[in-house]
Amino acid sequence: MPQSVDFFEALVTAYPCDADHAPLLEDPVHARVARAEDVVDGDLILAAVDWNGADYFNDQYTAHREPYDPTCQCGVCCHLADEPGLVVLLSNGHPWETCDPWPANALVLIVPARRLPVLAPPRAESL
Ligand SMILES: [Zn+2]
């Protein structure tokens, strides 16, 4: 049975001098992996993530969630029409002219629009 898993903040680039990864390095503390279903409007989408690592997009983009329509004629939505699980639309017409459908359980590297709270380090007497 699938279970939800919360991921901790992580720095995921091993290429600190690669220009494609530079946007992440501007704010690496806030980058995190999320399920596509959990991406919300305003999240900055940086990469697709799987067990092989992160596949960075040439252009990061901001999520604009909209309902997924498998009968949409954009030319991309139809490719996920037979997806066995839920499909979500992370963007529609921005930055591309087509939709941006993802399987709901796919992993996405994002900088969340709503930042996680910064936790104070544990106090010495509690260690
Ligand atoms: Zn579409």
Structure commentary:
It contains one helix and six strands; from the N terminus they run αββββββ. It has a four-stranded antiparallel beta sheet, with no helix packed on it. The protein has a two-stranded antiparallel ribbon with strand order 4-5. Helices cover 4% and strands 29% of the residues. It has one domain. β2 and β3 (53-62) form a beta hairpin. With 127 residues, it is mainly beta. Zinc ion binds at residues 72, 74, 76-77, 98-99.
Map the helices and strands.
Layout: H1 22-26, E1 32-35, E2 44-50, E3 53-62, E4 87-92, E5 99-103, E6 107-111
Antiparallel strand pairs: 1-6, 2-3, 2-6, 4-5
This protein binds zinc ion.
Strand content: 25-35%
Helix content: under 10%
Global geometry:
globular
**Element order: H for helix, E for strand:** HEEEEEE
Strand order of the largest sheet: 1-6-2-3
**Distinct small molecules bound, one entry per kind:** zinc ion
Query: What structural class do the secondary elements suggest?
Result: mainly beta
Beta-strand segment tally: 6
Question: What is the terminal separation in angstroms?
Answer: 36 Å
Low-confidence stretches: none
Instruction: Please give the count of helices.
Output: 1
Largest sheet: 4 strands, antiparallel
Round the mean pLDDT to the nearest integer and report it.
81
- Count of distinct structural domains: 1
